[in-house]
Amino acid sequence: MSDLVKLGKYLSLILRHKPEVIGIKLDEHGWADIDELLVGMNRQGRFINRELLDEIVKTNNKKRYQYNDDLTKIRANQGHSINVDVNLQEKVPPNTLYHGTALRYLDEIKLFGIKKMNRLYVHLSKDKETAINVGKRHGKAIILEIDTKKMLNDGHKFYYSNNGVWLCDDIDFKYVRRIFDDKK
């Protein structure tokens, strides 16, 4: 794993879950002061400067991060386990979205639905390929096809993040239309 990828994963930890690890605080919208972030990361032995930070933001394949307008602050677009308001747009999703997970979780999902667990929202993808890549991070991957049209009709809300991830609250298993493995 490259140093840039390692720094990106650490940045994700800080901006989505544990800013206190480097002694910083996020504001109510998840923004971190860039100068404080860089000092804090370096103090923890994660050698980073503004040039490397810019490279992480620019090259992250999930477009996880964004700068504010005057480029003095940074935040993660979604995926937080800490309570922040990243100004998500409520939006009507396509009729079908996908959730990638590991096969070992399927029995639990059938009983209890798809839970946001330690995150603020359940993450959904617009395509099977993205969902399968998410699922592979957790083991043998499966894809759950979600009937978002039915969810909308039943009063559920959906949000669209700046990096193209669909978000919603817990999903009852009755909204899972089909299950695919990573071969289909």
Automatic annotation (TrEMBL):
An individual GO BP term: tRNA splicing, via endonucleolytic cleavage and ligation
Entry keyword annotation includes Chloroplast: no
Organism domain of life: Bacteria
Molecular function via GO: NAD+ poly-ADP-ribosyltransferase activity; tRNA 2'-phosphotransferase activity
Keywords: NAD, Transferase
Transmembrane segments: none
EC number(s) stated in the UniProt entry for this protein: 2.7.1.-
Transferase listed as a keyword: yes
Record Pfam families: PTS_2-RNA
Enzyme class: transferase
Family the UniProt entry places it in: Belongs to the KptA/TPT1 family.
Summary of the function given for this chain in its UniProt record: Removes the 2'-phosphate from RNA via an intermediate in which the phosphate is ADP-ribosylated by NAD followed by a presumed transesterification to release the RNA and generate ADP-ribose 1''-2''-cyclic phosphate (APPR>P). May function as an ADP-ribosylase.
The protein's name: Probable RNA 2'-phosphotransferase
